[in-house]
Specification:
The chain is mostly helical. It has one domain (about 5-75): Orthogonal Bundle (Non-ribosomal Peptide Synthetase Peptidyl Carrier Protein, Chain A). About 50% of the residues lie in helices and about 0% in strands. The protein contains four helices and no strands. It has helices spanning about 5-15, 35-50, 55-60, 65-75. Helix 1 runs antiparallel to helix 2.
């Protein structure tokens, strides 16, 4: 069942303490000040809980931008609309 990209944006916005409108294809650890290692792990855990997936260690270190987060989720069968 497809998932709204807005749901992903809301999760990321909550973790990083930003407006969900600021989460777009350019959003990354370089553009979001609060995207540090602690909040990155909070993001990973929030995504695992919300989407009922478990990321491999390699995936967690690669998910450093909005597009890469979507790719990691798609590797677990999560489809966005």
């Amino acid at each position: 069942m497809p998932v709204s990209e807005n749901k992903l944006k809301e999760i990321m916005a909550d973790v990083f303490g930003v407006d969900s409108k600021t989460i777009d294809e350019r959003a990354s650890a370089d553009t979001i000040a609060k995207w540090d290692s602690f909040n990155h792990m909070k993001l990973v855990l929030a995504l695992e809980e919300e989407f009922n997936v478990i990321f491999q260690a390699e995936q967690t270190v690669e998910m450093l931008s909005y597009p890469l987060v979507k790719i990691a989720l798609s590797e677990h069968g999560i489809v966005f609309n």
